[in-house]
Design a protein that fits this description.
Number of helices: 4
Mean pLDDT: 78
Distance between the termini: 39 Å
Order of helices and strands: HHHH
Oligomer: single chain
Length: 92
């Protein structure tokens, strides 16, 4: 279970990808197309990060690819995407 927490935290790191994209959108025009770009950037980076994390895990002796770990990392990214949506619609 402890490893899953690390994977969710790794997914939350996608904050550093999604938020700059969203900030650019917010500064530009607050267009919903930019919101969609921020959400997709966050989710795609989460999937890539999940794959990289699992690849590193596979290369560790006594470890293997774990689909649930992959999903846990993606869940972290989805949480960030939901946070971005909440910020967008909560800005007033």
């Amino acid at each position: 279970m402890k490893d899953k927490k690390y994977h969710v935290l790794a997914g939350l790191l996608t904050f550093f990808v999604g938020m700059p994209v969203y900030q650019l959108a917010y500064d530009a025009a607050s267009d919903t197309h930019y919101l969609a770009a921020a959400i997709w950037a966050t989710i795609v980076s989460g999937i890539l990060l999940a794959g990289c994390k699992e690849y590193c895990d596979m290369r560790t002796e006594g470890n293997k690819f774990d689909l649930w770990d992959f999903f846990a990392t993606c869940i972290g990214a989805v949480l960030v995407a939901l946070f971005i949506v909440a910020m967008h619609y909560g800005k007033g």
